[in-house]
């Protein structure tokens, strides 16, 4: 380290911001070793406290600078398990406001692949090494594409470190933490600086891995169970047979002519579902709804609110937005020469049970009750009534304004005791 005990004392107050007691100075240890132990304790505590990767990186770099390590920039990269993104990048720059993390997506783009193969990380993975150190000079700036950018920013030395996970502990492609550390000091890093970084980066990597795994769990349960159901599960709502009685608007939609498309052009089915689910699910989410299930080409969702009227208005807003987005999707798909379709939608409101049901080995977090069966039957009647949207009488009554809606008659719904009056939206409203 390039500082003495006096400098350590000057920074004592800042270092004491750790939320757990720092380890006592060991017999024979130097003050520098004490500071390293304090910083390791801070990182450990931050990881246990569930701090974000950005907060861990920023807090670590600021404290490392106080210890005399001349950091100017730092970056951490970790892959993830996500349906769209491959991983996330976290950055820190001295004397700058907090930098937002950046997600990166899977890409087969030739330029992106070439950029990856000319990175320090690729070389470390290819050689099996875990540490790379380079002084940045005009002679070696062409070694990796990032060196030219760093030299232009005044960086004098660059270090890359990979902290690998033990074999068998990878989650998807998440099998290590990549970190890079750069300085703009004219003499670069000292050997002592780098020894300290190598000693401390496993703590940083572990805290980042902890935060990343928590985010993976949240992403997975919300992606596969729905946002609200996912949050409930993560909060501990996983007991079999435990359900809450709720009052909610029910949405059930499916796609027109889906069976015909499946039979005639099966190669287009998955891209078609992805496109239309993008349009419909995003509309539901933006209006405050929660998608519980994707059933073939069908979507089951709920809208909850303090009163039925508000929930019904939210569902109608989602229906209008979904219709607009499906129209945009159809324009694009028609131009591409691939099959197009439209959505049938049923809306209903009522009480139901919301919670866990299933066997000991396989549970489902869903809604159960007569209203759930009724909304699927209402959506199925769209074909017979030749209407894209059908609303139950209970739904229309909850809105307290029938002027926007037109009755299409009473229909016998399969499995429902009495015929139900159904409504559609007045095209002129």
Key phrases:
429 residues, Beta-Lactamase, Alpha-Beta Plaits, 2 domains, 43% helix, 8-stranded mixed β-sheet, 6-stranded antiparallel β-sheet, 24% strand, elongated, alpha+beta
Describe this structure in words.
The chain folds into 2 domains: 5-222, Beta-Lactamase; 226-425, Alpha-Beta Plaits, CATH 3.30.70.1230. The chain contains 14 helices and 14 strands. It has helices spanning 5-10, 12-15, 31-48, 53-66, 110-117, 120-127, 145-152, 191-225, 227-234, 258-264, 269-286, 308-336, 370-385, 393-399, and strands spanning 73-79, 85-93, 102-105, 131-135, 157-164, 176-183, 243-255, 290-295, 298-303, 343-358, 363-368, 389-392, 405-411, 420-425. Strands 7, 8, 9, 10, 11, 12, 13 and 14 form an 8-stranded mixed sheet that branches. It has a 6-stranded antiparallel sheet with strand order 3-2-1-6-5-4. Helix 3 (31-48) runs antiparallel to helix 4, helix 3 (31-48) runs parallel beside helix 8 (191-225) and helix 12 (308-336) crosses helix 14. 32% of the residues are buried.
Mean pLDDT across all amino acids? 87
CATH topology annotation of the largest domain: Beta-Lactamase
**Structural class determined from secondary elements:** alpha+beta
CATH class of the largest domain: Alpha Beta
Into which percentage range does the β-strand content fall?
15-25%
The CATH superfamily title of the largest domain: GAF domain
Our count of helices gives 14
Residue windows where pLDDT falls under 50 for at least 5 positions:
1-31
Measured between the Cα atoms of the first and last residue, the distance is: 74 Å
Radius of gyration: 29 Å
- Give the CATH architecture of the largest domain: 2-Layer Sandwich
